[in-house]
Amino acid sequence: MIAQDLRYTVRTLLKQRGFTAVAVLTLAVALAANTAIFSVVNAILLRPLPFTNPERLMNLTGISRIDGDTYPVYSYPNYVDLRAQTKTLETVTAYTRGRAFLMEGDEPTLMDGLDVTANFAQLTGVKPRLGRFFTQAEDRAGEGQVIVISHELWQRRFNGDPAIIGRAIRFGTAGKLRTVIGVMPAGFRFPADEGPRDFYLPFEEDLGDARTQRDSIWIGVAGKARPGVTLAQVNAELDTISKRLEQQYPNENAALRMVAASMHEDAVKDVRPALLLLFGAVAVVLLIGCANVANLLLARATARHKEISVRAALGASPRRITMQLLVESVALSLLAGAVGLLLASWGIDALLAFAPSDIPRLDTVSMDGSVLLFTTLLSLLTGIAFGLAPAISASRPNLTEALKEGTRGSTEGKRNRLRSVLVVSAVALSLMLLAGAGLLLRSFIHVTGIDAGYDYRNAISLEISPRSLAYGDEAKFMTFHERLTQELRSMPGVQKVGAVDTTPLGPNESVYSFTVVGRPPLPPGRGLSSKTLIATPGLFDAMRMSLIRGRDFLPTDRQNTPKVVVVNQAFVREFFPNENPIGKKLEYSPDNIREIVGVVNDVRWRSLTEDAPAIMYLPHAQNPRRFMSYVVRAPHADSMAPALRALVRRLDQQQPIVGIKMLAGTRQESLATRRFNLMLLAVLAVVALILAAVGIFSVMSYAVTQRTAEIGIRMALGAGTRDVFRLIVGHAVKLVGIGAAVGVAGSLMSSKAIGSLLYGVKPADPWTFAAIVVVISATALIASYLPARRAAKVDPLVAIRYD
Predict the structure, then answer these.
(1) With 0-12 CB in 10 A as exposed, 13-18 as middle and 19+ as buried, what is 120?
(2) Is residue 461 part of a domain?
């Protein structure tokens, strides 16, 4: 029976190619969007980590019991104590991120890597593609000089040479030789980290003083629970260990509580809200597509009312007719699903091309078996969803009226009402998507208009770290920095030059603890701390920051002169409210006391949407750093990269450059995720609006066809062209008005879904909703204009005779 229905369906769809093309294309676009977004959701949120027992992997962090601040890293002594005392974790691994140069070939290559303890392989259960991971003996201080490289680096720089194992390579600015002992599998990523890594080094090789400094917090820690141990049990034990260490070391560990979280959940928590929002958005697009195709099927059922009535008169049951019509709708949906898969493959490529690089696990997105199964099942459900109501409506014709020549059947009124409901639903759903896109757009405009406290235009940064082989001690690398500063200032067109250890919106951050001289000591766990930056004289001018009080750093602020510090306004508000901070002294240690000599304006250093934190600026000459980022301001800054590279090569032919980038480019990168979310939701909203417009057009066109005789009679009785025009457009406006009201109510009810993605805009922003209602209304007028115009030109004599 189904085979017979399928053969009939194929003949029918081939006969009505226009209807088939419109229905398939409408559904294919909606299914393609759902497939593309599901492939991302599947790869990032649903697919387990590609490790042994991934559900047992955990990130370990610290939280202050006093203020709730989170510390994503540990001190080495705390890590050692945790590893020794835990009973619920079978593996506890320490790691830290690092950057180094591969000194092979004509030019050094900057690489990102991880320093990890030897049990890293045990934690992940991943075996190297070639060779092995390092042992505990090689992980100990001063033991061995080994390195494990990524599969990508092996292919990129060593052409996949199978003899790479045992080869010594020059690594780091010191040019030390390291022996390659392993190559990681292709595509390996450590989810507790932020991105792809080129190398892995023994963690404990060169800990130095950090081995005993319990208040030096800088280590990332991950763990693997024992079989059968739950996350709650791990956290209960960590709380016990935290309290024990707090009693043993009250000065360093006061109020610090260790906590664990699922490694997978931790990795995706920042992108989960946006992905779920987009997944909901494509579901809305699919519902609108279903409503449109259901409208087409209702109109088609009206055209086929005689055919269906004849079949019913010959004995076909309503169930049999319903089944036949459902087979047609499912066939349409499956065909649309096949076309949608093709469109989705292109869509995924485009999506990945525009996606920001900081989305975790994005490189694993693909159309695998799960995606194909999802699309197939969704196509089946879609076919049933949009075909069921028209099929039931058409399966019970009034045989007496339907078999009369020229009669459309008594069910037409019900079908018109159902078509109207479908249009109202499409309008409401499209308004919800447009409202979401509008809110994201307004939020994005707010973020891009934020004054971050510095001028990012016409400024380029040169990131550099003098190589330790040539500039091994502090005096030598400081001399290099001074020479570089002088050369940069002498370049043609350069207006200002300054340097800082971390440029705005960068990933790194240092926090220093201190006390205010003259104030009573604070209890353990309530000490003062602040974000700290190392800067050279001229940085504030180069970034066009404002000096509020006091003075800038001077060239005379050297190691042998009194130590000074410049703070920002947020620092003053937090630690010196209603006081003049100039002249106040901060103690970092008994032999490191600094006087506040200046106050500068606040800069949003962490992110554009986060208020400026309290910041202390320390002079570079008194706090030497090897790595510094030079901010060069010039009218032609965007074309200075080649000249900067040539300058560094002139100073030292073998000196690597860490990076050269425009401050404006860094700002744009920080907005990449917001821009991506806005772009996707806007595209979906536009698609939804087009589908809604098509639905309005089709319903109005069908209404004109159905009411041709009525329109003729109205015109014969004196109705003018404007009256007929208002009749048709008024009906469209009525439907859109109801849909808009429902859509606004739905948007307000679901506002929590988008609230976390907004900045400076409330989810119920009235201006956004007003603009969207105007857009929807204008779309309705445009979509109903042509049918109304056609109705207004009807010849009354022809229309009265219309059947």
Answers:
(1) buried
(2) no
Nearest CA to 654 among 181, 265, 175?
175
* DSSP code for 74: B
> What ranges make up the beta strands (E) of 422-491?
459-464
Structure tokens at 39: 């492939």
Q: Note the pLDDT of residue 144.
A: 63
* pLDDT tens by residue, 436-463: 999 999 999 999 999 999 999 999 999 9
Residue with tokens 């001229």: 538
What is the rounded distance in angstroms from the CA atom of residue 340 to the CA atom of residue 117? 47
User: What b/e readout covers 543-559, taking b as 16+ CB neighbours within 10 angstroms?
Assistant: bbbeeebbebbeeebee
Identify the domain containing residue 616 by its residue range: 466-655
Residue 390: its pLDDT value, please? Answer: 67
With 0-12 / 13-18 / 19 or more C-beta atoms within 10 angstroms meaning exposed / middle / buried, residue 535 is: buried
3 state SS of 604: coil
Same domain assignment for residues 355 and 213: no
Categorize the per-residue pLDDT at 636 as very low, low, confident or very high, splitting at 50, 70 and 90.
Answer: very high
Angle at 620 between CA 515 and CA 495, to 5 degrees: 130
Torsion sign, CA atoms 193, 199, 205, 209: negative
Within this chain, do residues 77 and 32 fall inside the same structural domain, yes or no?
A: no
**Residue 534 resides in a domain:** yes
User: What is the number of domains present in the chain?
Assistant: 4
Cα 101 off chain centre by: 29
Q: Report the run of H or E that residue 70 belongs to, with start and end.
A: strand 70-71
Same domain, 115 and 171: yes
- The answer to whether 116 touches 200, Cβ cutoff 8 Å, is yes
Angle between helices 641-651 and 474-489 (to 10 degrees): 140
- Whether residues 50 and 71 share a domain: the answer is no
Last residue within a domain, chosen from 607, 629, 655: 655
The 10s digit of each residue's pLDDT in 263-317 is: 999 889 888 999 999 999 999 999 998 888 887 777 776 655 556 666 666 556 6
Pinpoint the alpha helices (H) of 215-271: 231-248, 250-253, 263-268
Residue 503 in domain? yes
Evaluate whether residue 603 is within a structural domain. yes
Q: What is the pLDDT of residues 667-720, one digit of tens each?
A: 998 898 899 999 999 999 998 888 888 888 777 776 666 666 666 777 766 677
Residue 46 shares a structural domain with residue 80: no
The region, left, alpha or beta by phi > 0 then psi within -120 to 50, assigned to residue 503 is: beta
Comparing C-alpha atoms, which of 284, 630, 627 is closest to residue 467? 627
Q: Helix, strand or coil for residue 523?
A: coil
Comparing CA positions, the residue from 97, 101, 95, 96 lying closest to residue 468 is 101
Distance, in Å, from the CA atom of 628 to the CA atom of 498, rounded to the nearest integer, reads 10
Q: Under a CB-based contact definition with an 8 Å cutoff, are residues 286 and 691 in contact?
A: no
What's the token pair of residue 100?
Answer: 């180094």
Alpha-helical segments (H) within 249-368: 250-253, 263-268, 272-303, 305-313, 318-354
Query: How far, in Å, are 327, 331, 341, 459 from residue 334 at the CA level?
Result: 10, 5, 11, 55
Integer Cα distance of 418 and 412 in angstroms: 10
What's the rounded Cα separation, in Å, for the pair 766 and 759?
Answer: 15
Indicate whether 645 and 779 sit together in one domain: no
Question: Does residue 438 share a domain with residue 398?
Answer: no
Last residue of a domain, one of 238, 254, 270: 254
Between CA 568 and CA 545 the distance in angstroms is 10
What is the C-alpha to C-alpha distance for residues 405 and 403, in angstroms, rounded to an integer?
6
Return d(Cα 316, Cα 310) in angstroms, integer: 9
Give the DSSP per-residue string, 131-188: E-PPPHHHHSTT---EEEE-HHHHHHHHTT-GGGTT-EEEETTTTEEEEEEEEPPTT-
Residues 142 and 210 in one domain: yes
